[in-house]
Batch of 4 targets.
Target 1
Amino acid sequence: MTTEERLYKLEGIVEGVMATLPSRVAGVENRMDLLRQELKGELQALRQEVREEIQALRLEVRGEIQALRQELKGDVHALHQEVMGEIQALRQEVKGDINAALNRLMLYFTALAAALALLTLLR
């Protein structure tokens, strides 16, 4: 085979490739478009799934916060009742101490009055 024959053969191959190249490029472009659309669909589905998961987590966190609030309210109420009970007990104790002091003071005044009455009689 001569160089010229080889050149013609190569030209034929190049022409054949050039003839089929646009359809191949178009096929690749179509495939890329299909893959792009498929990827967009998958991304949209993934976004929706993530949104749903986030919403579920929000609801779960809100529930936990509400439960903690209720527990804290119960603890605060119990502590309030305990403090009020202790205050009432201290109030009663102070009342008792004041009453005992007043009774003692009344006895002192009675003794003083009796002593003054005796001094008045003895004069």
Target 2
Amino acid sequence: MATSQMFIFFSTKILTEPLFMIFIATSILMFACWKKSGRVFNILVAGVLAGLAFLTRYLGWILIFSFVLYFMLDIIRKRGAGIKHLLVLLFGFFLVLSPWMLFNMLAYGNPFGAFLENLVVYSGSSTQSLLQGLYDIFVVAGISGLLSFLGLFVIVKRNVLREHLLLVIVFVISLAVYLVLPHKEPRYLLSFLPLYAMLSGFAISSIPRSNIKNVVKVVVVVISLMSVFSGVINAWNNWDAEMPMLSAISEVKLLTGLDEAILSPSYPYVYYFGDRRCITFCGIPSTADKTECADSADEIISLADEYNISYIITNAFEPSNILLEGTDDRIEKLKSYEMWENPEAISIYRIIR
């Protein structure tokens, strides 16, 4: 898993994926410890870690849903014997979620208000096809994705599905959910990378001890080294490309107060690095209607007045950069930064009132 180029790339980002992977992997590990020892403490910790995974990324609902589905199947098979352990797991899960649920009750009038709003926002965003989802699986997982499906086959063939049922449930549901999601991003798949690694282990362990297994080991090592090299190069190039944007945001941050917003299509950079509220050319990011974006100087000024905006940061590689070309003297360019051999890739504008 550590040699995945996508993992290396996103590990350099201030995003939730690396932390989510720790929680989901350790939750499944504690579940496995409970299966082996039967200690109630282990299943309690598994629930706590599942709660932390959910709070880190709402995709964590897949993990707790898989836990519940596993125990429901177990309860049916054993005629109620697993109810106690399911309740302990859910206690640990909701114990962690309780402050968040209280906040949701106060803010939304619903203990899961923020989660439900997130679903509504992303279900109404851009729609990608099933083929795009399959392509993303190959890009993110690579050879480990193929080995994962082989690992599923090995689990069924060895008749050990019952022992590894949770792992299979989480893997299948995570892929199914991603394929049907209207809004797809490869990093959503990356969140479940530990599952690919676990299932790949089953596939590799099924290869008989022979010269073929030695060849497979060499191939895996070579591919892993190539993946590491590619991941490091991509991460370095991306960091180098981000420096102009970070420089622009740092400069505008010094020119603005905490109560001011910045108009820019680069929402994550402005919000997380600039510590300022970011308004896109289509409005507030979470409710932006891309069919009603500002496309004239008057509309940009109107948007700036509405959200207390004095500065604009544009990116030449974003469509919004075109909006400011040829605008009147109410919008003044202050400075530009070079990126990818474009001397005016990142530009700072000031609104004159």
Target 3
Amino acid sequence: MNKEKTPVKTLAVTESQLSHSDLEKYLLLPSGISAIKAKSVAKDIIEAQGQLYPEQPLPYNFALRMVYWSNGLPQIKDVSQGLDILVKENIGVELSQLKLFIREGKVVGFKGATSSGYVHEARNYNGLSREQFISSIIPFLKSGIKSDQKSKRFLLTIKQAIIFIENECEFNRRFYSLPKGKAIKDITKLAEISIDVNKLMYSTCEDLFTLRYALASCYNTKDTIDAVLKKSVIKLKKVTGKKTLNLDYESDYLKLNNFLDLETQFCGLCFASDSKSKKLIQSLIENYCGW
């Protein structure tokens, strides 16, 4: 006689939105002070108000709102609105998009969207407390902000470099193209900018070569290397009269090396650039994220 199997009881998982108090310790106001420090300052204001005007006690929420107003959030109508703004600016996503999964009062997982729209899910395999688990996912969420900021700075630097080069150099033809009807200041995506590497590097312009080389390299490394090598070969043939080269021969290789543009070497980037070019090149290096 077959025994009836006892059904396995499945424990329900409920969804819980993260709260302001869950994230408060990770939030900074625009001035740089933390949300936790802001609460301490609000208490100090209340205490000072009480000593000066004991008959006119200052409500805590109003005191905290004053702190928010004076530290970069003058537009908020209440503290809750201020915290929503801080979550968005510090974590990179709306508070409503951050969810915890709870089973029997314990956190078992997380789901949320990064600032770039990527949906991130995590499981709490190690039995971490609510506070510990939230602490473990914050770095990932913040990395989305850093990545977005880096991309924006890279695009801004590219646009600044193009404008600077165009203002300082004379070109027979423009070395870049944009979507019809758009100016460089209106560009919001790198993909909207197309660069002719040969025109940029080897046109009639002789100034700002290191910056032009750096910009070309960011756009298309292979085409940039090809342009440098072709230019070097042309110089070598013109000076030496050689019509053919065999780079398997050390003598030909060394001769070609002598005709490479110095500014394409690291030492050239260091000493052959003006201060404006160096700042732009530094920003390209620090924020490079591909074209």
Target 4
Amino acid sequence: MGIRLLGIAMLVACSAIAQSPATGTSGGQTPALQTELKKLAADAELLHSDLPGFACTETGVSEAIKEDERNPNKNKVKAQVQFVASVRAERAQDGRLHESLTLSEVNGKPYNGRKFNPPMMVEGGFDQLLDIFLPERQTCFNFTLSNGRIDFVSLPGTFDRKQCGELGAPQGYVLFDKAGNVSHMERQVTPELARQVHIVDFASADIVPTELAGKTYPLPAKVVAEVPKDGQVLHFEATYTACHLFKATSTILPGVAPVPESTPSPSHP
């Protein structure tokens, strides 16, 4: 089952966040909040237009969990698939970043090319990380800036606007470290709206600044996503390591001089 992970909203390095509350929609924001949102918008546009092809090692687990409402300690895992894979993101002719997965290990054993049927898989968590902060979408939200954190909530009546409705009217927050770099993000969408726009209900992410081709991009170090379905909760959790520029292989024909390879970019932590 493929369920898109969309708009989990992260950013790269920012200046230190103001410590006093600053709130508002696009028409009533404080200067401090406007400054931070402009930086986020620039980062969002960079991811959409400039993020190069790259690959990471993805180590994940996908589960179907039967929850005990009275005692969470009695939750039962009904299905579980653990996997290790290389996830590759390449920008296609349509300008979008397309992801592909090459499995190397399933449930602790080398993948044999046969059945792989996890309860849930997600995608879209690379170039879409900052979707909430794109300039045309910031008008969909009310933002609050305070104590190293930005909270966001969808404005009433905006779901019917295309640029807003695609996000599913989420609410959530981002946290920043002492240097002003975003370190964590969470967002929640109601099940009804999540089904309409084909996104997960809950998503959280930890991110790290990652250098690719001489530029720094915010890539996920860990992603968690959940979707309620048929009396169960589908749970997906993955970490991403060793991210690096993707280099296609080619065969040099006789009599053709090879093109010198460029220096690889530093690896993702």
